[in-house]
Specification:
Mean pLDDT: 83
Distance between the termini: 10 Å
Order of helices and strands: HHHHHHHHH
Strand content: under 5%
Structural class: mainly alpha
Radius of gyration: 20 Å
Number of domains: 1
Oligomer: single chain
Number of strands: 0
Length: about 210
């Protein structure tokens, strides 16, 4: 409960910053219309990440945190993944659009999320490895079920807003562009709604992650 209240205090501070954002736009610019068409793909990629990352962590265990291939996949920035997608995308398919953005986002985000979960898992030697494979996988499942809500709460704001580079390179208007545009035009009301929406998602993700008394 204490951590939950501390989190609410942080979100409240963020809301105060959004409402009191200093400065003004250097030219008269209207607040952008919210990209409702980007909401579906954003929810889809969140759903895919929330399933694929725990599944891969369950299959690989905490040892994935030290795997060099995973670190190499995690290292490239979003710009490189977007450029690679554009280079390999068949021209007769037309522009990558939303499908290309989804693929690039998963390629950029999935290795880091798997590592995040693997690092948070406890070691398995000598136990539960000594009890056999079934016991080890059951322990992984229990640990990941406990971590799932906290992981979503920590990562959801990042997934929904930190996609600006992919959107700009691939020419797909999305939530990251909307967020940054509202900052640029000093749309305090729009930013406040963003903060409230993210805080609500954070609270819902944390709801099932309460520590036992």
């Amino acid at each position: 409960m204490r951590e939950f209240l501390q989190g609410l205090a942080v979100w409240g501070f963020g809301l105060a910053l959004a409402l009191g954002l200093p400065g003004s736009s250097w030219k008269e610019a209207a607040a952008p219309i919210f990209p409702w068409g980007a909401l579906g793909p954003a929810l889809l990629v969140v759903a895919l990440l929330s399933v694929l990352a725990p599944l891969l962590a369950w299959l690989g265990g905490p040892g994935l945190a030290d795997r060099r291939p995973l670190a190499l996949l995690e290292a490239p920035p979003d710009l490189l993944w977007a450029a690679l997608l554009l280079a390999l995308w068949p021209s007769h398919w037309g522009p990558p659009g939303i499908p290309g953005w989804l693929l690039a986002f998963l390629l950029a985000a999935l290795p880091g999320e798997v590592r995040w979960l693997a690092q948070a898992m406890p070691g398995e030697r000598p136990f539960p490895q000594a009890w056999g494979r079934a016991a080890t996988r059951r322990m992984r499942r229990l640990v990941l079920m406990h971590l799932w809500g906290r992981w979503l709460a920590a990562r959801l704001p990042l997934w929904l807003t930190a996609t600006l580079v992919l959107e700009r390179v691939l020419g797909v208007p999305g939530l990251g562009t909307d967020w940054m545009t509202r900052v640029a035009v000093r749309d305090r009301a729009g930013l406040a709604l963003w903060i409230l929406a993210l805080a609500l998602l954070w609270a819902l993700a944390r709801f099932g992650d309460r520590e036992p008394a």
